[in-house]
Amino acid sequence: MKKQVFLFLIFILQFGFAQSNLNWKGYFSYNQIKDITEATDRIIGAGENALFSKNILSNTIKTTNTIDGLSGQTITAIHHSNTFKKTIIGYENGLLIVVNDIDGSVTNVVDIINKSIPPNIKRINHFMEHEGIIYISCDFGIVQYNIDTLNFGDTYFIGPNGTEIKIYQTAVLNNEIYAVTVFNGIKRAALTNPNLNDFNQWQTFDAGFWNGLVTYNNQLVGSNLNNRVYKYNGSFFEEIVNLNQVNIEIRTYNDKLMITTLNDVYVYNTSFNQLAHIQSSQITDQTITFTCATVINNTIYIGTNENGILTSTIESPASFEYIMPDGPSKNRMFSISSSSTNLWAVYGGYNIEFNPYLYIGFSLSQFGVSKFSESDGWLNIPYSEMLDAKALTRATINPNNENETYISSYNNGLIKIENDIPTTLYQSANSSLESIVSGSLENIRIGPSAFDRSNNLWITNSRINNGLKVLRANGQWQSYNMESILAAVGANDYSRIVIDRNGTKWIGSSQNGLIAFNENNNVFKKITEGVDEGNLPAKDVRALAIDNRNQVWIGTSKGLRVLSSISSYNNEGQINTNRIVIQDGDIGQELLFEQFVTDIEVDGSNRKWIGTADSGVFLFSPNGQETIYHFTTDNSPLPSNSVNEIAINPTTGEVFFATDRGMISFQGTSTKPADDLKNVYVYPNPVRPEFVGTVKIAGLISKATIKITDIEGNLVHETTSEGGTIEWDTTAFGKYKVASGVYMIFISAEDGSETTVKKVMIVR
């Protein structure tokens, strides 16, 4: 295993949402290149839902993602206009985004999304610029867009009888526009015709089956579905090359013609002499496939599905380098786990019904895992090094040794990773883990695991009688039979496990609600739906958290419940949970009623971060009565409202959101409380006029009193800390912004045993 080596000098990551908000960071994958485009001074690559560019002269890399205003949807085409200094981005759902090079502004254009046509045919396939007009090829037809004024022109529906038809690509030659359609060959019309929105004005130029067309050296060059590329000589199409594969992309730039298939890139000059032929088999360090290609100043840039942009030169086409910003290997993260220094991302998984064969496609996922640290960036461990374990679901970091991590597989058991190297795969032959089918075929569905205070690892093993296992610190295994508490054992899956300070294991299940177990009395208890059975809104428990007040927060597929105390486990009789009722005027409403809760995390201030399947992320006050934040794709850089997992760095307070379209983080203010007030600090300091955000006071102890006064002693803010950090919005009790000056911060422990004083300067 080796860490990715990046061949650029400087990596620039743009932060800030809505121009200057520094609370957000993006952690996107740039491996899979959807399209590339050429600018005067740089090459721009489009990943799944984010862009990056490399300056050809300085070698600097710049990224653009949802933090900067892009959408989390899937990109399908990009084009840079050197004339108007703008980059236009097209999406699978019909969205257009225009990025202005001059002022950095990002404009969302939703006209195609809002068109009254079926949503599944709004995909944007290609951009062609001609005299300031972008001709947009879509799955329904062609749309005119003025790149200078950012206004739409006509829409051409040129299918039979004016119906919608997929357009692959357009080209202009001798003041005529040509369009490659999916079923009706190449259509042609005169650009001077004022009535091009009449389908009758479009004539069939060639009735063959084509999928690409460009104008090159004053000729039409097209790719046919017979795997050949032709040039039109004025009378008929003359073959240039037999690709032996279906063409993926054909393009021209300056004086070069580029043709791309899955495994080959061909480069031609204006005389149609082949200048280069790059084959994927020439890349021996890994298996890659191609998506697109271009040439700038004799350097070939090839988009790949696996490793960013591959570069070579026409003179030395056997020497390759990669261009790709540091990032995770995939955007679609099934789960994440964070410690104070590391974050692990896992990409395998199962579908909503816990079926690992239907998570992606119809077979078990074969993905690796990734590890991130601020000091070292991303380390991507490929599937080839994961000991043949498929459908990986969760990472559990040893709290006493961060160099030891366990990865759960929903088919092959449990992997132990030591010092970033997978060393052991625990299966039935070398552990007490059990398969759900007999015989030689292993089907060991290991769900989440958790360490207790004695460094024992508790493991859930789905769909078997002995569903709870423990790998003790001394290396011994033990199993616990759950037949007495479970219904439909053979269909029961486990979603979460958390362990409280008393050693009680709280286990979320798909069919049996919440299960509690403590080995000291060897008793299993169950909380399920129904008023007399525990009062859960559903038996399908997906999220669990124990907060700082020893309450158990339970997220299900149909809402939220709270168990008032972990000590309820010791009570006789049925354990019951409570719903949270919030007041909306005179009406009481249940918090997160019928919401599919995917994760619950508790920060240093005992606030609850809750992820949902389709409604984004919520931050609630400790008791759930106040909604502090509700982040969605509409009001934040969240790339998707489908949030799979949340993780919090307990030291920095950074909150990570893993979605099905990428991961971002929010710089939270709630960190673990310190033991004393010796290391209290204030940031930013000074607060300059251009700063947008809040002042943070960090390094606090729990329940510290903070009073902020102006230099004359007038109180402007007062609060009490619950975690290690508080924030001040630089207003006087929320009424108005305080004036420029030095402000004193007086901090004292709850019992007055410790005090400290800090200063902050504010410049308006």
Automatic annotation (TrEMBL):
It comes from the Bacteria. Coiled coil: none annotated. Gene3D superfamilies: YVTN repeat-like/Quinoprotein amine dehydrogenase (2.130.10.10). It holds the Pfam family Reg_prop. Residues 47-203 form the PorZ N-terminal beta-propeller domain. This is PorZ N-terminal beta-propeller domain-containing protein. The lineage of its organism: Bacteria, Pseudomonadati, Bacteroidota, Flavobacteriia, Flavobacteriales.
